[in-house]
Design brief:
The complex is a heterodimer. Chain A is mainly beta. Chain A has three domains: 23-257, Porin, CATH 2.40.160.40; 285-415, GMP Synthetase, Chain A, domain 3, CATH 3.30.300; 418-453 and 455-708, Porin, CATH 2.40.160. Helix content of chain A is 11%, strand content 43%. The two termini of chain A are 22 Å apart. In chain A, 44% of the residues are buried. Chain B is an alpha+beta fold. In chain B, helix 1 (2-18) runs antiparallel to helix 2. Classes of the chains: A mainly beta, B alpha+beta. The interface between A and B is large, with 73 and 61 residues.
Chain lengths: 718, 216
Amino acid sequence: MATTLPIALVLGSAGTTAVAEPMYGRSMSTYGLPGGIDTPTAETLPDGTLGATVSWSDYARRSNIVFQALPGLTTVLRYSRIDGINDYRDNGYITDRSLDLRYQVLDEQGWRPALAVGLQDFLGTGVYSGEYIVATKTVTPSVRVSAGLGWGVLAGKPRTIDIDDEGGTPNVDDWFRGGARPFASVSWQVNDRLSLVAEYSNTDYVARYSNGQVFQQGDEPGSSLNLGAYYSFGRAYQVGVYSIGGNSFGAQFSIALNPREAPYPSGLEKAPAPVRPRPSPGADPDGWSGVWAQDPTAQPAIQAALGDAMADEGQILESMALSSSRAEVRLRNTRYINQAEAVGRTARLMTRALPPSVETFVITSTAEGLPTSSVTLRRSDVERLENTEAGQIAAASVLSDAPAGAPGLVRSEGVYPRFRWSIKPTLNLGIFSAEDGLTHEVGAEARASYEIAPGLVLTGALRQRVFGNIERRGPGIPGQRGEYYTAEEYEADPSLETTPEGVPRVRSDTRMYSGNDSPVIPELTLAYYAKPTPAVYTRVTAGLLERAYGGVSAEVLWKPAGSPLALGAEVNRVRKRDFDQLFDFRDYEVTMGHVSAYYEFANGFTAQVDVGKYLAGDKGATVSLTREFANGWRLGAYATKTDLSSEEFGEGSFDKGVTLSIPLGWATGQPSRERVNANLRSLSRDGGAQLNVRDRLYDQVRESHSVKLYEGWGRFWR
Amino acid sequence: MNGALKITLAASLVAGLAACGNDDERSGPLGVLAQTASQVVAQRRAADQPVVAPKSPQEAAAEALRVNPGPLIQAGFESLDRTQVMALTGQNGALRTYMTPAEEALILRGGMLVGTRGLGHDLSVAEPQTETLIRAGATGTGVRIMRYFAGDGVERPLQFSCTVGAGPRPGVTVESCQGHGTSFQNSYMVAGGQIAVSRQWIGPNLGYVTIQTLRP
């Protein structure tokens, strides 16, 4: 690879294809993107950056989450409290969610400025709706100038908001229409920490509604000139103050995390046991001849020793087949986020434990007791290639599907049955609720699982709330926005469990399951995993599947180890659980399910399409796209559209959301498979609702399949 | 003193809450964070505690030589500000793996640094084409490839061009390397083709390590 990029770019924040440092933003706008103060620029963030900006002013409090989804594509999810607008709640402010996209069409090169096109608040009822084209040019190393054309809010011509619109769908007809006006900004990077920004903006902070109401948010800006100063500190933080039109002032705080900038990129796990090369045939003639294999005590002794050594590495040796020339081990990885590290460490331990005549190593990964793939290595390659570039051992290895059983496989003693239990604190946070602001619930959960045999698992959990402000209540009263049924009213009248439009309330009464002061059973299931053919996996789960539904869930997945494509199907027969979350059920029962196609693209993108019937009996499809890094970071977005109309679905029109998963080891450096997960979905609605059954097959199986395994293969020799 | 105690108590309380059970795999994010916090506290305490008589590197080396009959090196990690005795734990051909008691490793080939493990910003593998020049005490140029994990979890190579020649002090061979906007200088004292004493660059974060052979 012929790169001469600075180290920080190769190991830190830049991709491998960059040819010059791209134009990264120096300060964030009040809308949470690289920009001026209120106006956008054509700058980007380093690819993969996940950031947040909170901006306070007389106009609004905006909480923005930004993700640089591709080197040129910046996305922002915004939750705003907009002051000065009154709606039915009569609070003097409204809360509003909005979504922005910006694409940098051209990066700066030579005399040519960078050029970007953006859509601001482009889904539905947008107070901030506007579009722009903007160019940014570096004038001196510390000064950048941007100029552009804006439509909608950016032109000071806000669009009339349709009060009857449920939102959530793009109003393509309005885009780049209604007259454009220019905007401009200049930023001066005074030193490493401080930057100053001045801009010319036409935003007038007026909102017009289709019922004739017009609101001025905050004070009308005194002029079109805005000024700001931004100070960066630490690796990731920035604070800023700004003035809008000279008469309003604001402050903001930003944080930016880049998955490519780990505190301990190589991890802090202990060094692996090194390879032990074999003695010469002259020094160990018995070992080389293979006669030891005739001794019935040989395998149990070797298996016990290898199992102990693997246990120190967080690997469970589930079973082993041993002959004079070949050994297969089946391992369950409980420690490393990259399966390749588990395989590599096991290969080295095998060189230390097995007699010299064993030349073929087959290392089979398992998930839920099922073998998922086999890596076959020659022992002489492991000896020869230790401490070389990981690609060499990859080229010398073979990845194949693993059959359920293999001749001579002996289960390790004491692995099954396996009983595990834990008691841990739980914390639920609700951040983006329009009505409630920040909500929380703190409690404790006891969880136990009993693996009776490989693939047969009994799982149960018991949860007790300790304190919190997520109280039990019924769903919103139709036609009376902002009002809710009380829990008692809702429980007393079963007819309320169907909306006036005739949609069964499958998720919109989710708060009925919250705020229980007595212990609840979030789940109690018996799951059976099997593998009828080397590339087909099945799961049947029965019991209390999730907090709101119980029943039976059956799934089948076709996923060859070397294929980026997988196909699956799932059928569930479930019944709605009673709100006390114990063993009672309510009247609603449904058979639902879907067929799924999964595809793993190059460069870490995974797509999934599900088509089928959802909890409320509505039929439709879910499309999800996830970006995944070799270090385990995952960011995804999904959208579900079903045959429910926008009116039947309610606010938001269709279900959509964002998922985020960060491996804890990324932050701490300690090896762990633990993750922090967040799921931001627009609203809890009844349309397009999925059953939350645990341990669906796909994510379990593909850990050790070609795309994920080779993506993390660099850790083989770790 | 009081402050340290408070931190310990708080950390162990969380750990007690979080890590209750036999399920390491799912101890929960709080559990892992609590473990990390406890480790940090433990480290701080270890650092705070006045050691009865702080051992000098010379004393540590002498003690290690007395206790351990095998091959030993002493490694001084400049950026970590610590010097440790490391014992041979494995040999594969010319490659030798030396480890600290905490299982951090240096991998050496006849004294040439080939890799590190367990240090957080490890050198995965070094491929120095200058190695024969250095061992021969000759003058010349060559390419040195050093592979590291980038933050995104992918192993990436850095390529440096290096010049080898005699250093200012007699018996010392110096390898000067440049590339990717940085430069570093490795120094080697070679005896009989083996590098007995050296100061070598691990990488951009860890900087230099000084390696001294206590017992070959």
